[in-house]
Amino acid sequence: MENTLNILILEDNVDDLGLIKRELEKLDENIIVRSTDNRAEYIKFLNEELPNIVLSDYKLPDINGKESYDILRDLNSDIPFILVSGSIGEEGAIDLLVYGMNDYILKDNLKKLVPAIKREIKEYKNRLDTKIIQDKLIDSERNYRLMTTNTLDTIWRTDKEFNVTFVNDAIFELLRYTPEEFIGMSANTFVTAEGMKTIESVAKELTENYKNGKIIQSKFEVEQIRKDGSIIDVGLRANILEDDNGEFIGFQGRSVDITEQNKIQKELLRLSMAVEQSPNVVVLTDLSGNIIYANPRFTVITGYNLEEALGTNPRILKSGEMEDGFYMKLWEIVSSGKIWKGEMSNKKKDGTLYWEKAII
Questions:
Q1: pTM reported for the whole predicted model
Q2: Each residue's pLDDT tens digit, 195-222
Q3: What angle do CA 71, 107, 44 make, to 5 degrees?
């Protein structure tokens, strides 16, 4: 039952058990009390349901206080254990407390029992709360490390001054440093001067947004310097790093090598510029033969602008001058994956006929 205090008593004297139970009635909460006077039933009770606290006499027919304490600790290291006895002197009680028992109450002074139980239960709950928090932190850290270990991206954290405080193993592929070498390094040792200007600008934007109650992610590129001195293009995603109390302590994010990607984009840009500026007409169609791209030269020659041509079939240029079967044969060649080369008569938007050499 929720919010019910489950108490297990190990006591062989019926009168003493009655006095202890009467004292427990002073607890200002719901309680369940189970009691036994032997080892077998004590172990049975513990295995059925762990109590919130154990009260045990020291000397019983087939078990003593130390043994009952050890049995409990084998099952749970945190549940409070209070020795309630009249047969041990002060020196013996001190030895048992040193042994690990939570408290010792004399049977002729049971008025101390309830305060002792309240104190130990409160400390027990605090220990549980602390353990839950610690377990969550451990799980969180474990999951974070698992995530950072299994990703190809470089995961990193820095303080406010851009000194690296954490990095995963992927840093070796990116910049050729081991994590041990990289942690503690300042960003200005592996980022170009121009790149540092970008980082400082991004950090300023992130910080200002954070002060205004916004946590954003910034995506940007910088040049970074590998251990061997070579320079690569790196794409980064970064945001604010907070501590467990929600305080801003630095920056975190991920990095990926985009050098090859940038090279391809530059090549594509050069190719695109060459096509755009070509003195020849360049037309691209989909598999159905509908126009999806035409360069500016197409407009100059045919009179059709790109908006008019997109989605239409090149048959809009048919002049009607070509012999029967010409276009059917052309289409058969092209649709088979081969290249067609030849000349054809076409018609401009204004109706003017013209001849052109074509490669399709």
A1: 0.48
A2: 999 999 999 999 999 998 888 889 999 9
A3: 25
